[in-house]
Design goal:
By secondary structure, the protein is mainly beta. Helices cover 3% and strands 47% of the residues.
């Protein structure tokens, strides 16, 4: 099992930036593909971005392409989400997730079912 703790959320004005961090514990982190999802009030949990175990493959939701960047540091058991040009519609609780697989098939990596471990989430609020 991979235990995940997100941080870095907060309140920011539209057009601003935030950097989310996800700290992972467990020896399997470095061999686990990771993802970020987000959930707005009353909405389903939506896919944001995916990264393979070694960072070679990333997949972004269309809504965040060109604005968000995922990265990972396996030596430090960390995953990061740099969010730029934030919009009010980015407001949500952001969750880090671990697949416990080296890679996840494209059709599954964009779905919550593709991941086994989840953090508690961090709130991101973007004001207009």
């Amino acid at each position: 099992q991979v235990q995940l703790v997100e941080s870095g959320g907060g309140l920011v004005q539209a057009g601003g930036s935030l950097r989310l961090s996800c700290a992972a514990s467990g020896r399997t982190f470095s061999s686990s593909a990771m993802g970020w999802f987000r959930q707005a009030p009353g909405q389903e949990r939506d896919f944001v971005v995916y990264i393979s175990w070694n960072g070679d493959t990333t997949t972004y939701a269309d809504s965040v392409k060109g604005r968000f960047t995922i990265s990972r540091d396996n030596a430090k058991n960390m995953v990061f989400l740099q969010m730029n040009s934030l919009r009010p519609e980015d407001t949500a609780v952001y969750f880090c997730a671990a697949a416990r697989l080296l890679t996840v098939a494209p059709v599954l990596r964009v779905r919550a079912q593709g991941y086994k471990d989840w953090g508690q989430g961090t709130q991101v609020t973007v004001s207009s």
